[in-house]
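Section 3.1: Structural characterization of target chains.
Under the original work plan, the team committed to producing a structural model for every single-chain target entering the pipeline before any wet-lab resources were allocated. The record below documents one such target. The sequence was received from the expression subgroup and is listed exactly as submitted; it comprises 252 residues.
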Amino acid sequence: MRKEKVIIVMPAYNASKTVKQTLDDIPHGSYDDIILVDDRSKDDTAEVAKALGLKVILHEENKGYGGNQKTCYNAALKEGADIVVMLHPDYQYDPKLVPFLTGLISSDVCDIMLANRIRTRKEALKGGMPFYKYFFNRCLTITENIVLGLNLGEYHTGYRAFSKKALETVNFDIASDDFVFDQHIIVQAAANGLRIGEVPVPAKYFKDASSINFRRSVKYGLETLLVLLKYILCKLHLAPSAFFKPKTGIKK
């Protein structure tokens, strides 16, 4: 029997067409509550989510992908979550994996779980992942594994689960409000010795799924390399940074 309180958070932007499909595929009994944070969508995402019975938080102004996640995680912790799953409501990631992501955290095997879309090159490309994204995903993932001393298959997935311990340790509130937030929080987690695992998930790219363009992808890649450089300098004691330290009052 599951004892931990599991809250699914959905960082939403223009997801009115897919939020119901996403919700319908989440296994019953695998969660206790769902919070959707609408980042000033231009469609009726918030209204659709409310009609489906979800708890909805509205941003008065667009805060960005990272800013949305900050609201998600803080709201989930405030609601007493023991495990928080980030599931995009655009149906790009398979909701049926929720109990697999939470299970390894509940069993105290991992503090953070990622859903890896790169089980094989063929599968990722067949799922619609653009080749340039696949290529840079591989390059960045290899670099991150070398720098952080980990052995993960993919760092750039948007499907993640966190223990309460992880979210109360990493200082994600000072991370970027942009897309590189996903890398900031993982580097912070690695710096604090948190255990990170992964399970495979099919890659799905389609019209209504959110995806950043080539220019934003390049910016994201460069910002990822920058935070890795800062991590290296901090580890070498050449440029100490509070960015990699745990939140005040939390000991490593």
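The CA atoms of residues 7 and 21 lie 18 Å apart.
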